[in-house]
From TrEMBL:
PROSITE patterns: PG_MUTASE. This is Histidine phosphatase family protein. It comes from Tetragenococcus osmophilus. CDD domains: HP_PGM_like (cd07067). GO terms for cellular component: cytoplasm. One of its GO terms (molecular function) is phosphatase activity. Pfam families: His_Phos_1. SUPFAM superfamilies: Phosphoglycerate mutase-like. Transmembrane segments: none annotated.
Length: 193
């Protein structure tokens, strides 16, 4: 049976607004971030999409987004859905992020030397967590709320040559089908547009 994963980024946070590096550290949703979550909630309602399972990163920004999208609904918090840990760069201005090395699309293993994670580590824990979620899912659709870097790492692992690169804006929704242990990107949705 084919299942669908609706993998979302949280709404805009204070650190997003201030252009600060935000991985393992956390900051609250802004008014705009709350509005983005409500737009995602309206999208799911209009499309009449029901979820057999709901999951969020353990970070406040993801939980708050989930609670606005699915108010009064049970969800499970998963550490494996947390944002990329940027080590000593946490909370620093975004302009201090390193440039990508030639031929790379991400920061690779740069943050390992600064107490953070590599793109491979983030991809592996996201894949492990999301695979378990989909294997255990008793129904058709799952919703998972995470963060931009984690979504991008997961995307790099599972993208196909034909895939059009999605935007990773706040509250974007990446829709994957899951079959026989594999994830296939179907579409990306920006409910605010």
């Amino acid at each position: 049976m084919s299942k669908k994963l609706y993998l979302m980024r949280h709404g805009e946070t204070l650190f997003n607004q201030l252009k600060k590096v935000q991985g393992a550290c956390d900051s609250p949703l802004t008014t705009l971030g709350q509005e983005q979550a409500k737009q995602a909630r309206n999208y799911f309602r209009q499309k009449q999409i029901q979820f057999a399972g709901r999951y969020a990163s353990t970070q406040e920004r993801a939980c708050d987004t989930m609670e606005m999208i699915q108010p009064n609904s049970f969800y499970t918090r998963k550490k494996g859905l947390k944002e990329w840990n940027f080590g000593f760069y946490e909370g620093a201005p975004e302009y201090l992020n390193p440039p990508h090395k030639s031929g790379q699309e991400s920061y690779g293993d740069f943050f390992l030397d600064y107490g953070g994670e590599s793109v491979d580590q983030v991809e592996q824990r996201m894949t492990t967590t999301l695979t378990q979620i989909m294997e255990d899912l008793e129904g058709e659709n799952a919703l998972a709320v995470s963060s931009g870097g984690a979504l991008f790492s997961f995307y790099l692992k599972w993208r196909q040559e034909k895939d059009r690169r999605p935007t990773f804006s706040n509250c974007c929704i990446l829709v994957y089908t899951y079959q026989e242990g594999q994830f296939y990107l179907q579409t990306s949705i920006d409910p605010g547009k």
